[in-house]
Structures are given as C-alpha cells and as structure tokens.
Input
Amino acid sequence: MLGGIIYTLMFVIMYVDVTVYMTQMPNFRIVGILMLVLMIILSVSMFNFFSIVVHYQMSFKQVMTNSILLTIARPIRVFSTLIAAAVLAYIGLRYPALYFICIPSLIAMAAFFNFYATYNKLQLQVEQKKLKEEEEREAALINQDDDDDDDDYEDDVEDKDVKRI
Output
C-alpha cells in the first residue's frame, strides 16, 4: 500500500511539473519534456514494482531499489513494455468494450513478460558468475596443492642429500 501511495505522489508531482513547465514557463519546455520522459519511465518502474511485490518477499526498500534498477538496467525491455502498452491502449480506444474485458490484463501480462525475462537474464548472469568464481577457487586450490607437492619433493631430495653427507 505504501508503494502505491509513493507512486501516486510521484506521478502527481511529475504531472504538475510537466504542466507548469510546458504551459507557464516557455523557456523551460526542455525540462518539461525531460519530466515527461521520467514520468513514462516511472510508469514502467511501477509495473516492475508490482511484479516484484507480488512474486517475491522483500522489504519495501529492496522492492523500490530493485524495481528502479530493473527499469534502468534494461532499456530495451522498457521500450518494449511501453510499445506493448501503447498498442493495447490504441486497440482499446478503437474498441472500448475491450477495456472492460481484457486490455488491462493484457497490459499487465506484457509488463510481467518483460519483467520475468529481465529477471531470468539477471539470475542466469549471477549463476554464471558464481560458477566462474567456484571454478577459479577450485583451480587455485589445485594449483596450491600442486605447489605444496613440489615443495615436499624438493624437501625430500634435500633430506636425502643431507643424509649422504
């Protein structure tokens, strides 16, 4: 519930900023465009936020951080979510009855599809990194054992030389 309130508050603030910069301050239209772009990115971040809240058990701070990082980390997924939502909204404008039947569900499904693909890709990268670290650790242990064995052999040879004298 806190996340919904925060996202609503951020949307209201950004909407007011866009409205003020675009209508009342003509010299700051570029800032208004920037706020509009950030508001669009915030909407995708909201999709990721709700996907994380529903599917994972995390603290509020972790959910906010992860949703923002997922949005920033994969810009192609952000644009594909936006395009899918825009296409579905356009179809809904052409056929308004679909808004009551399936358009919101299809938008949520497209957003979750992109979220899940991003999450799986990140999980795969983490697993590959762990596997690589384990292999490096095993290789270091093997090299250390080999070095220790060589030292033992040299010590044995030196002991034999000392016994001969």
